[in-house]
């Protein structure tokens, strides 16, 4: 007779999905272990602070997109104010800056998105038909930005139906989709969740899970902890690692024995991992405020530049600019050193803001190349053509023993912090139901 495992549930990953799952499970009285490969919590939420910066900055997730109930509820409980971002956009094309209303400018493109019942294809194929000279240059530019920048995807690999589901007009009109920033950064929420988890669970950082051996009702987790091999057993496992690790890619890839059933493996291959490189630059002064056109802008989109969007920390007025490259632009930067990446960001800012020597204003810069992070392998997930059902498939329990969570497994808020949080709470509910059902079966 097998002895009872030391743990009821093991949660792998202390990103936002793992923290949410562990926070919920910790309130149930289950014996819970949280394992995290990094020496920090938060995963792709990475809020950084040092003495050279006037405020903490984000090297990963930054915005609350829309009004997701889970994020708003947790921010309120944690006492973290949200600052609404002014929707003041401009497009930079061929050396000219044009102020635009983002959704109104996009409408000629959005009206051509196919209905939900149409067949799927790659966004790039759709572009060839519709991004013609009949559309204004600013519309064509923003169409590229929402696929390559927002989705962080190669348009040749991105599902048109997935893009359309996000951007399709409601009743022929543009929709309200505000953005917010957590005051002090997303890291505040990660720390608040972690404190709640640590009060009821065992937590181990710098513990990288390498292999999982499982059968219904029982898992054995092998991990490397500061050079030492560790072994843990549990009745259930919540895996919240990013998509590439589940796909078996990169040095931190996870090995499951046996492999996931074929339906889950197929779903994993129907998703891709977007690319992102970002740099935050702190300057001696707000030099852009000397130019009336730039003073009130929040975002400048430049699809032909190495960094395709530059933004300010509005509504705060600080001498900081963020440079973002997503999708193909990020892939082109990915193999450069961080010094070279920062130089490219400064070159972009110099061209956009008309500065011959932007270096003379620079105090410090901090960047992050998510492609080189072995525990992320990229920015966030996107859907490949024909893969619309993949996220729903990944959200299903595997023999009521393995439970996948993370933004890639959430249908409603994928590629966002809200999606990660929702998926963690969904997985926690599934675990409770599975363990209660198993206990009832055993008792009977």
In short:
The chain has 444 residues and is α/β, with parallel strands linked by helices. Helices cover 32% and strands 24% of the residues. The longest helix is centred in the last third of the chain and has 27 residues, at 417-443.
Describe the structure.
The two termini are 18 Å apart. This protein folds into two domains: 7-44 and 186-273 and 380-443, FAD/NAD(P)-binding domain (3-Layer(bba) Sandwich); 88-177 and 275-374, Polyamine Oxidase, Chain A, domain 2, CATH 3.90.660.10. It has helices spanning 16-26, 69-78, 102-110, 123-130, 137-150, 160-167, 187-198, 243-246, 262-269, 292-295, 328-333, 338-353, 390-394, 417-443; strands spanning 7-12, 32-35, 47-48, 57-58, 64-65, 82-84, 89-93, 96-100, 179-182, 202-204, 207-215, 218-225, 228-239, 255-257, 271-273, 276-283, 299-301, 309-311, 320-326, 362-369, 381-383, 402-404. Mean pLDDT is 95; it is low at 440-444. The protein is built from 14 helices and 22 strands. It has 444 residues and is α/β, with parallel strands linked by helices. Strand 1 (7-12), helix 1 and strand 2 (32-35) form a beta-alpha-beta unit. Strands 1, 2, 10, 11, 12, 13, 14 and 22 form an eight-stranded mixed beta sheet that branches. Strands 8-7-17-18-19-16-20 form a seven-stranded mixed beta sheet, with helices on both faces.
**Uncertain spans:** 440-444
Count of alpha and pi helical runs: 14
By CATH, the superfamily of the largest domain comes out as FAD/NAD(P)-binding domain
Tell me the count of domains.
2
**Fraction of residues in helices?**
25-40%
The CATH topology of the largest domain is given as FAD/NAD(P)-binding domain
Mean pLDDT value = 95
Strand content: 15-25%
Main sheet overview: 8 strands, mixed
Structural class of the secondary elements?
Answer: alpha/beta
